[in-house]
Structure formats: structure tokens, C-alpha cells
TrEMBL record:
Domain Fe2OG dioxygenase: 1-82
Keyword line: Dioxygenase, Oxidoreductase
Matching Gene3D superfamilies: Alpha-ketoglutarate-dependent dioxygenase AlkB-like (2.60.120.590)
A Pfam family annotated for this UniProt entry: 2OG-FeII_Oxy_2
GO molecular function: dioxygenase activity
Name recorded for this polypeptide: Alpha-ketoglutarate-dependent dioxygenase AlkB
PROSITE patterns linked: FE2OG_OXY (PS51471)
InterPro entries tied to this protein: AlkB-like, AlkB-like_sf, ALKBH2, Oxoglu/Fe-dep_dioxygenase_dom
Originating organism: Pedobacter flavus
């Protein structure tokens, strides 16, 4: 998945985005839009990632390509819509 921010026009501005992961672990990476600073996380089975406030304004994110993926991964993402 390519670098992006979750900024569809239907999304509430600065609304929280909650992401639940199940199954195979995957890396998740953030990159700051202005400084290029990178932050890597591991999304383990059962982990909850919450992106709040101005995260989408200032940071891109992606699932970096993995050479080996062991098993199925399911992600449930909850977003606040508006309009
Ligand atoms: O699969 C994930 O953990 C997140 C995917 C993602 O960034 C998205 O759906 O916008
Ligand atoms: Fe995303």
C-alpha cells in the first residue's frame, strides 16, 4: 500500500480513526509530511491503532511491502463520517 493520509472528503475533519488488526502481524509506518521523520509500528494480532486530531494533516502512513507474509490478516477500520 502506497503512502497516503486518510482524507476522503466524507470524513469528519480531525475525527479519530480506529484500526483493529487480527491475524498475521504487519509493519505500519508513518512519515511526517514536512520533515520526513519516520515512525514504524508493528500491528500485532488484536492491536488497536487510534489516529487522532491532526495526524492525517501532518503524517502519511502505509503498510510497507513485506517480503514474507505469514498467514491471513484482517483489518477493521472505524472512521467518523460527516455530511
Ligand atoms: O490495513 C491497515 O492497517 C490500514 C490500511 C489503511 O491505511 C487504510 O485503509 O486507509
Ligand atoms: Fe490509511
Amino acid at each position: 500500500m502506497a503512502w497516503h493520509s486518510d482524507a476522503e472528503k466524507e470524513l469528519k475533519k480531525n475525527g479519530p480513526i480506529a484500526s483493529l488488526s487480527f491475524g498475521a502481524e504487519r509493519k505500519f509506518a508513518f512519515k511526517h509530511k514536512a520533515t520526513g521523520e519516520k515512525v514504524d509500528l508493528l500491528l500485532a494480532h488484536g492491536s488497536l491503532l487510534v489516529m487522532k486530531g491532526s495526524t492525517q494533516k501532518h503524517w502519511l502512513h502505509r503498510l510497507p511491502p513485506s517480503l514474507r507474509v505469514f498467514g491471513l490478516r484482517v483489518n477493521l477500520t472505524f472512521r467518523v463520517m460527516e455530511g
